[in-house]
Amino acid sequence: MNNNTGLKVSVLMLTYNQERYINEAIRSVMLQETNFPFELVIGNDASTDCTGTICADWQKKYPEQIVLFNRKKNLGLQQNFIQTYAQCRGQYIAICEGDDFWTDKRKLQIQVDFLDTHPDYSTCFHRVINYYEDRGTKSLSNGGQKQDTDISDLARSNYISNVSALFRRGLFGELPEWFARVSTYDYAIHLLNAQFGKIHYIKRPMAVYRQHGKAIWSEAGTDRKLDIALVVRELLMDYFKERRTDVYDNLRQSHAQICLNLIRHYTGKGQQEQIEHTEKRLLQYQPQWTMEDVKRMELPRPQSTTQRLAGFVKGMMKRGRAAVSRVIPLPHI
Predict the structure, then answer these.
(1) 154 and 117 in a common domain
(2) Rounded to an integer, what distance in angstroms lies between the CA atom of residue 277 and that of residue 273?
(3) Which of 219, 250, 272 is the last residue of a domain?
(4) What is the pLDDT of residues 274-307, one digit of tens each?
(5) Looking at 200, 219, 238, which one is the last position of a domain?
(6) Which residue in 181, 288, 198, 167 sits closest to 233, CA to CA?
């Protein structure tokens, strides 16, 4: 995809019924201080509250910079992303969902400066503050994160928060046909981009990732979350099987572990039919295993006294940090 507009960055923002949050999200983008032009492309998925009106007010204030799609019909998360993504014109794309926000005026400048001077990188991302709104607690993401990684690392697990990502637009051409079948787009888009360059991590926190009861991911139960993770990996495995065997193998390992976790979840619920379905799903991508292998791996591994003690101490420290975080205010631009 060529960029003939002179735009350096398109900020992609999806929103649906987020009237409590959307103002802060848009404000944090429009207050960015840069030496290049950028646009904000908003896909409002037929919200039934005041989200569309708030977005329209911002668009009137910045008519040359904000592109607003107030959809008349609800498309769902994935189609809203696909159609909004297609309208982005910048050399780079950044993401800020309608219930998240940025906390550093120089966020875009810092990330663009890095990618401009490192052409062998496809993506850069940064640390975020995870805000668990319903509990009022906060935590920092990416503890122990390596500074530079690649697609093989990303195939093991998704460590990129959407609100932190900046990536080059058009590296892989059009979105593949199967993209519409994933329930969340983030992991798929980051892996597709990572085929064409390394990934850089900036330790500086520059955004808040808000987790609350009405968010799509937060609303999903454990089984639904694990199933979403399996579906995207199955689609990605089919895509990478003939392209990158290392990526395919790492995705297979991750898929197997998620299957085992899902089986243990169903075992705790006594859901035998779901257990058997997930076992078959696992063996489809691990044909070298037998059902006896799977049954053996399903059993929880016994912990030593040292491991139990370490887990107890870790849990106490986590609860202590969570309690302290309640009195620490969230940063804002």
Answers:
(1) yes
(2) 6
(3) 219
(4) 999 999 999 999 999 999 999 988 877 777 888 8
(5) 219
(6) 181
